[in-house]
Amino acid sequence: MRVLFNTIDSIAHWMHRVSGLLLILMMAVVVVDVSTRTIFSLSEGGIDLTFRGGIELVSFGLLYCILLSMPHCVDKGQVVVDLFTQGFSATLQQRIGGIYTLGFAALGLAMSWRFLIAYEDALVTHEVSQDLILPISRIYLVVIVATLFLGMRSLLVGIRDLLLITNR
Question: Start and end of every Tripartite ATP-independent periplasmic transporters DctQ component domain (predicted)?
């Protein structure tokens, strides 16, 4: 069981790093897009280095950035209102956290199911993005994998907390 937990945790950490890389790439796209539009404006249209799809790249990048980071962050830094739980034992607090994390599992699995339906619809209709003409079905496929992994890791973390298994 510990091997399964460690493997899932490692994959989640890898996804989190990819998310950070996407964040840097999104920032680069925004800087380049704003810079090229400024050059275009200052040259009164004489120098056109602008490109299409900057907003889409940032939008899809943000979607992936959030969804790829969520599995790693599901058991880290949760905001807890201590007024309610501060009098409880550490064991009970961990179990309450496990139940809370199972809610994330339900959320991740429900999102996967809903995006699977959207994926099938986009596949049938051959829906594409507006500027870059990317197949939306492929974008949804990555979202399905990320949300499914969120649900799976949340489920395992919730079980680990409910059974009082230590992470290390």
Answer: 26-159
